[in-house]
Amino acid sequence: MVPDKAVCQPVADALSERGAVKTVAAVERSAVAEDRSGVMVRVRLASYADGGADKVMAGLADAALRCKGFNGSGSGGRQHVGVAQYNGYLRADNTLTLRLTMKIGNQTLPVYLDVGSVGSTVEYFATFNVTGDDPGTGSTTAERMQHVKVGAATP
Fold first, then answer.
1. Contacts of 27 (CB under 8 A, 6+ apart)
2. Distance between CA 47 and CA 119 in Å, rounded?
3. How much is the pTM?
4. CA distance 135 to 147
5. Are 33 and 142 in contact (CB under 8 A)?
6. Predicted confidence (pLDDT) per residue in 80-128, tens digit
7. For the chain, where are the E strands, in sequence order?
8. Distance between CA 82 and CA 103 in Å, rounded?
9. Is the CB of residue 115 less than 8 Å from the CB of residue 93?
């Protein structure tokens, strides 16, 4: 996704598998709620070299302060993304939690984006509901368990 405001690029990068800071390795998984409620969780773990994780987090922190929203274009067409911070639960060396409001056509989709770094690894957790209903905070059992695993595996 390419935003119409350069200051918002780190947020757009966090939503995709690409970014200004190149990864050494990355893995991404998605899960859908078994109760068919429409709630989905996307987990992405990315490893960076040479202070890359710090650069990613610094860019996101700056964007969280200066970017309140943007119009983005990409493979999914054009969409508006509102950006606001919220009080998330994630604990890591460095954390940032955003509540994004993605407007695609006539549908508004709230997305909770929790990002945290542990050493050279950055954890990206996106929680949303494909029906457009607000899933509440981004804190899910899947996110908490994955964070515990990453924290234990990182020196």
1. 44, 45
2. 9
3. 0.82
4. 20
5. no
6. 899 999 887 777 788 999 999 988 778 788 889 999 999 999 999 888 8
7. 2-3, 25-32, 39-47, 69-74, 77-85, 94-104, 107-118, 121-129
8. 8
9. no
